[in-house]
Write a structure and sequence with these properties.
With 259 residues, this protein is an alpha/beta fold. A five-stranded parallel sheet has the order 4-3-1-2-9, with helices on both faces. It starts with 6 loop residues before the first strand and ends with a helix.
């Protein structure tokens, strides 16, 4: 591990770009290596064992190729594999992400909080513990968002098709508007504007990207692995689907969400 080495950021596909945005904003001097596993997306529809195996494999490769730290920019992969990752690579800096339930639950007195997430994230023990921690502070409803990751992976981040899908997902709410919405999958901030339009412009949306970036900075500083701040870092994209079109979309999404 060396301060000049890159920080690896992994996700099931495109979603982790929303976390990468926050990392680049907070540490513009660092080099980042983003790996999206779009060939195996969506993780949220797989078993915990499958997601754990995939995540461990990606971590093994990226560490062997010189990454100084690993950011698991995927709620589903964090829930499935973060404990196993830290046990296997106990001398490495590894940061996960979790739904931003804490700030949402404490945004007002006893708020009605809607948690949007993949089906697997909502089933995982890690999320159950998080839910138990804050369900006394808020009235929490969970919403498994089948099909939303798949749309985003296809590059559908605006338009009528996306709006119609979101309206269908929100239909069970029966017109009841929550006080806060937690974007419990890193893909969802990529369609933040569309979600905001459907759920209501006055409903605050919370995601864990900023907190993950801050924790990454803290952990790197603690380990003495920060790069020199007098430089401009780079971002390299890789994807298991090995598609030039998909890699171009990654770059476009990073530029778009960074505005």
């Amino acid at each position: 591990m060396h301060p000049n080495s890159p920080i690896a950021v992994i996700d099931s596909g495109l979603g982790g770009i929303s976390v990468l945005r926050e990392l680049v904003r907070l540490m513009p001097w660092e080099d980042f290596r983003y790996f999206g596993d779009s060939a195996n997306a969506p993780y949220g529809e797989k078993s915990t064992a499958e997601v754990r195996a995939l995540t461990l494999s990606h971590a093994e490769r990226l560490f062997s190729e010189g990454a100084k730290a690993l950011v698991v920019a995927c709620n589903t992969a964090t829930g499935a594999a973060i404990t196993a990752l830290r046990e296997r690579f106990d001398d490495r800096v590894i940061i996960g992400i979790e739904p931003a339930l804490k700030p949402a639950a404490r945004s007002k007195t006893s708020p009605a909080v809607l948690v949007m997430a993949t089906p697997l994230t909502l089933k995982q023990e890690k999320f159950e513990h998080l839910l138990a921690q804050y369900n006394k502070d808020a009235r929490i409803t969970v919403l498994p968002c089948h099909g939303l990751v798949e749309l985003i992976e296809q590059g559908v981040v605006t338009g009528e098709r996306l709006t119609a899908h979101l309206q269908e997902l929100f239909a069970p709410l029966a017109g009841e508007t929550p006080d806060a919405v937690v974007l419990g999958c890193t893909h969802y901030p990529l369609v933040r504007e569309a979600i905001q339009q459907v759920i209501g412009q006055n409903v605050p949306l919370f995601d864990g990207g900023i907190g993950t970036a801050r924790e990454t900075l803290r952990r790197l500083e603690e380990a003495g692995l920060l790069n020199g701040t007098d430089r401009t870092g780079t971002v390299t994209f890789e994807n298991s689907a090995d598609s030039p079109t998909l890699l171009a979309l990654c770059r476009d999404l990073l530029e778009e969400v960074a505005k």
